[in-house]
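Changelog excerpt

This revision adds worked examples to the README so contributors can see how folded entries look when concatenated. The first example is reproduced verbatim below.
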Amino acid sequence: MALKRPRFPILEFDEWALSLSRGSAFNPKWLMPGESLVSILWKFACANVLPGDVLVHLISPCVDPHEGVVPVRTDIELTRLCRILRLPEDVLRVSLLDAALPGRFHAAFRYCRLCAAHGYHSVLHQLEDEYRCPAHHESLDTRCPHCGIETPYIVCTSVIEAPFRCVSCRSHFSYGRLSLLSTLPAMRRHERIAIRRRVFLRLGNAVDAVGSGFATSILDTRATPNQ
């Protein structure tokens, strides 16, 4: 029989309230030193199969998910972020840009193609005066290698739903596509050490402000999910 319009209203499923009712899945070992919040959210969304608008709403309920919010410390509630992602405050604090430095970071997503191949994006990549990746010494770029369009560096639906990809043409920023969940080492040890040293050099004040837990939590990460 043909499907007919019902004479009574259908109740809507409140996915925002129930999406994480059974808990969330996330392994801190997927993270690398100085990982940006956008990169962390990409992994969290993939691991928990969360739509972009749902994740943005969970993090910032008062923000329009399609307009999004810039990942700076003054615009995102850190306590709420810790509760949702279940990650240490020191790790998440370092993942956010410092709002006290206006004009010192790029408004467009800035990346190293080799880091993107490992499912990693550093908050360092967004700093205006950082020109090369500390791990791979590659020049940092803001434009898609395929269509030339820039992806905005904001937490919004379109960005979250295009992990390590261009929001315009959906091409990958990396040199190739990797599996969603990779159990291979994300980077070699000397690459992790180079990133960690640069993070401490550039973000020393932020790290010192939250104690030594940051150092132990990011020192020896081994695996990361990729898209």
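The second example, added in the same revision:
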Amino acid sequence: MAEAYVQVTTTTDSRHEAAEIARSAVAERLAAAAQLVGPIASTYWWEGEIESAEEWMVVFKTTAERFEALAGRIAEQHSYDTPEIIATPVVAGSGDYLAWVREQTAEVTTDQV
């Protein structure tokens, strides 16, 4: 059951952008929850140079079925040319919490509105 769930991470250079991406993903039920972590210090290669930057990380809780839609939404809203969008499978977790994640990310049909 746990392999049906993922944690998805992205980083961005502003708390405001991170919060906007998090809020829209949750509002659209692409994620049950999103946590902002930061600021964090990032070091990475970019265009042949080692860069360092202060960033904000967003950690999304979602189902594997919703990953592609969530990744598309992150990419659409993100200001980076190549945003980090990484899904990590949830190997184990609280049954009640995972059931809540599934319930919160269920697609709403017109019958339910």
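Reviewer comment on example two: The first strand starts at residue 5 and ends at 12. The first helix runs from residue 15 to 27.
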